[in-house]
Structure formats: structure tokens, C-alpha cells
């Protein structure tokens, strides 16, 4: 993990952050290689409730807690990562 390929990204959805083993994975992946999942309907807070894009706020909160970052830093860097991954995305 220390030699993470510059083109590799880990998409973090809420279900990815529910176990300690996964917390360790998030700690090891540099923030510059993390994106946040917003549109997976089955990877949300509760397996019986459809996931919504607004849940990204909670997954961001967990990333900041796990990595010891400010929410602003996590939001900024993961947004920049998404634009690197999807360079044609609308940036408004």
C-alpha cells in the first residue's frame, strides 16, 4: 500500500467503514487515492434502506475521524480525486 499506483483509487462507501479491519485499510490508503461513493443503492447505512447521495456526509465524517483530518480537507481532496478520475465531469 505504501507504493500506491498514482492511477489507483479506493471508492469509500458507508458500508466499507463499518469494521475495524476496514478502518485500518482506510488509514493506510493515502487520502489522495480515496474517492467517496455516492450512488450505490445497496451500500448504505442500513441494508434494508436504499442508499442516497446525501449519505456522503456521513462517510466523509468517518474518513475524517479515522484519518484525523478536518472535514474540509477530506471534502476538498476527495472532490479533487473525483475530478482526476472523471476529468470530463462538470465542476460547478
From TrEMBL:
The record's Pfam families line, in alphabetical order, gives: TatD_DNase
Q: Does the keyword Zinc apply?
A: no
Q: Which Gene3D superfamilies match?
A: Metal-dependent hydrolases (3.20.20.140)
Q: Print the keywords alphabetically.
A: Hydrolase, Metal-binding
Task: Read off the InterPro entries from this record.
Answer: Metal_Hydrolase, TatD-like
Against SUPFAM superfamilies, the record matches this protein to: Metallo-dependent hydrolases
**What GO molecular function annotation could you give as one example from this UniProt entry?**
metal ion binding
Sequence similarity: Belongs to the metallo-dependent hydrolases superfamily. TatD-type hydrolase family.
Q: What does this protein do?
A: Exhibits 3'-exonuclease activities and apurinic/apyrimidinic (AP) endonuclease (in vitro). Show preferential AP endonuclease activity on double-stranded DNA substrates and 3'- exonuclease activity on single-stranded DNA.
What name goes with this protein? TatD DNase domain containing 3
Whose protein is this, by species?
Monopterus albus
Amino acid at each position: 500500500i505504501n507504493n500506491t499506483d498514482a492511477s489507483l483509487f479506493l471508492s469509500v462507501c458507508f458500508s466499507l467503514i463499518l469494521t475495524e479491519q476496514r478502518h485500518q485499510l482506510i488509514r493506510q490508503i493515502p487520502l489522495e487515492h480515496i474517492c467517496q461513493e455516492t450512488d450505490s443503492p445497496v451500500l448504505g447505512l442500513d441494508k434494508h434502506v436504499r442508499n442516497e447521495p446525501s449519505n456522503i456526509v456521513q462517510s466523509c465524517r468517518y474518513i475524517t475521524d479515522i484519518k484525523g483530518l478536518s472535514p474540509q480537507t477530506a471534502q476538498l481532496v476527495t472532490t479533487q480525486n473525483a475530478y482526476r478520475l472523471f476529468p470530463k465531469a462538470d465542476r460547478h
